[in-house]
Amino acid sequence: MAEKSGVVFIGRKPAMSYVLAIITSLSTSNAKEITLKARGRAITTAVDVAEIVRSRFLKNLKVDKITIGTEELPPREGENRARMVSTMEITLTKE
Predict the structure, then answer these.
(1) 8 Å CB contact between 22 and 49
(2) Burial class (CB in 10 A: 0-12, 13-18, 19+), 87
(3) Residue 4: pLDDT band by 50, 70, 90 thresholds?
(4) What predicted TM-score, i.e. pTM, was given to this entire model?
(5) Quick one: CA dihedral 3, 6, 35, 25, positive or negative?
(6) What are the tens digits of pLDDT across the range 47-70?
């Protein structure tokens, strides 16, 4: 949940932890946008977080941009091939 210049990294914590981080980040700073970044299984949590924030808490937020991609991770110990992991970035902006 590291927040750096309007970026929230989504991981294994409950969705409401990230919702609180987004609300806090947007209310304390004068930032107009925030980006959620997630990889692999955390992508579903990122989508849930974006929808919870938009529908329940900050009605004036809009999804500005969604970027999808793939990262190549080095092989784990005992493996001989690199792994491909899906990535997603969701940018939310205030109206």
Answers:
(1) yes
(2) middle
(3) low
(4) 0.88
(5) positive
(6) 999 999 999 999 999 999 999 999
Crossing angle of helices 15-28 and 42-52, in 10° steps, is 50
Tokens 């690199």 sit on residue: 82
Q: Which domains does the chain have, with CATH numbers?
A: 7-94 (3.30.110.20)
Q: What is the dihedral of CA 12, 13, 18, 20, to 10 degrees?
A: 180
Runs of H (alpha helix) within 29-93: 42-52
Q: Which residues make Cβ contacts (< 8 Å) with residue 20, sequence separation at least 6?
A: none
CA–CA dist 32, 81 (Å, integer): 41
Is residue 1 scored above 70 in pLDDT? no
